[in-house]
Design brief:
Elements lengths: L31 H5 L5 H9 L23 E3 L24 E5 L12 E7 H9 L12 H18 L4 H5 L2
Parallel strand pairs: 1-3
Antiparallel strand pairs: 2-3
Length: 174
């Protein structure tokens, strides 16, 4: 199983198994990174410009479909639920409460290397701790922790209270 540089578990054997598509890929197979941020990697941008900004991973003559074919590959999960247990995020507006979900990086740099690929998913706080502190894997068939369900339901109840109508006469009658 993959490990962080400090030796804790990442929860997967192959981070690329959890990737749907690169965040920089446009619908027509072009690389948005090379077009929008050429100053960050001039050589990469020049190569993409010569190929009409075609993505090196999906290009017919280029990559074999693996994300490691591209130095600017990035895939971040945008679903706001835990990929392990399915707990949905419930954020409270104007609150500094700790979020229920945390980003979990599947791709880490080895000692002395720089991280070139970012592969990130969301895990609830409880699953995140289990993955890093034990043998738990992201692909485990897991149900939300009872504490996680209680925290989510507590936030849901507060949301419902905010949506309830209370007339100004009732509110200020006291």
């Amino acid at each position: 199983m993959e490990k962080t540089p400090s030796g804790t578990s990442v929860g997967v054997d192959d981070p690329y198994e959890h990737v749907e598509v690169c965040d920089h890929l446009t619908d027509d197979g072009r690389c948005r990174f090379a077009f929008e941020h050429p100053e960050q990697d001039r050589e990469f941008a020049r190569e993409r410009r010569e190929d009409e900004f075609g993505c090196p991973v999906v290009a017919d003559d280029g990559g074999d479909g693996e994300g490691d074919d591209c130095p600017q590959f990035r895939s971040r999960n945008h679903d706001r639920e835990c990929v392990r247990c399915g707990l949905e995020e419930r954020r409270m507006a104007h609150s500094d409460e700790r979020p229920l979900l945390e980003e979990h990086h599947l791709s880490y740099a080895s000692a002395g290397e720089t991280l070139s690929h970012e592969i990130t998913v969301y895990l609830c706080r409880w699953c995140h701790a289990k993955v890093h502190d034990s043998w738990a894997r992201i692909t485990d068939d897991a149900a939300p922790d009872p504490e996680a369900v209680a925290a989510a339901e507590g936030r849901r109840s507060r949301e419902q209270e905010e949506l309830g109508f209370e007339s100004a006469a009732d509110r200020y009658d006291q």
